[in-house]
Automatic annotation (TrEMBL):
Source superkingdom: Eukaryota
The protein's name: RNase H type-1 domain-containing protein
Species in which this protein is naturally found: Arabidopsis thaliana (Mouse-ear cress)
Domain RNase H type-1 per the UniProt entry, residue ranges: 14-122
Matching InterPro entries: RNase_H-like, RNase_H-like_dom_plant, RNaseH-like_sf, RNaseH_domain, RNaseH_sf
Single Gene Ontology MF annotation: RNA-DNA hybrid ribonuclease activity
């Protein structure tokens, strides 16, 4: 299943988290509009997490906060971790990550409309290096590191 366009008036945010038990988790996200055009992207270094699932939740929270701060109110979040989507869409329960779930649900309420789906996208931004001495990077242009991946998705 490839990338699909969001409904008219919506934005779609593809996000991914990167986990390494020795380092803080990283996040990357790409936002496109209903025609599939690049809107913006970002990457960030988060806190240390206990496992890959927590890193995915942290990446989603960072992406949600970025989308909110840039005025996106109808947003479709798409990630590559099926378990995150099953938990958020109430098909699966996990008490051990209750605080992460609660935080995502609280941020979801801020949006006019919000969806969560699963897809296997490239996780290039989450795994690429941030510029030296930066913890967060927002792009209003297509970063070179993802330009070829976006062209493949839109063709």
């Amino acid at each position: 299943m490839g990338w699909t366009r969001p409904p008219h008036g919506w934005k779609k945010c593809n996000y991914d988290g990167s986990y390494n038990r020795e380092m803080p988790s990283k996040a990357g996200w790409v936002i496109r509009d209903e025609s599939g055009q690049f809107v913006s992207a970002g990457q960030a270094t988060g806190n240390h997490t206990s496992n890959a699932l927590e890193s995915e939740f942290q990446a989603l929270l960072i992406a949600m906060q970025s989308c909110w701060s840039h005025g996106h109110r109808k947003i479709w979040f798409e990630g590559d971790n099926r378990e995150v989507m099953e938990i958020l869409n109430r098909r699966k329960s996990r008490f051990d990550i209750f605080n992460w779930i609660r935080d995502v649900q609280a941020w979801k309420q801020r949006f006019q409309e919000c969806r969560f789906t699963w897809i296997k996208p490239a996780d290039i931004l989450a795994k690429s290096h941030l510029p030296q001495n930066e913890q967060f990077k927002f792009y209003d242009y297509i970063p070179i590191v993802i330009s070829s991946a976006l062209q493949l998705k839109n063709s």
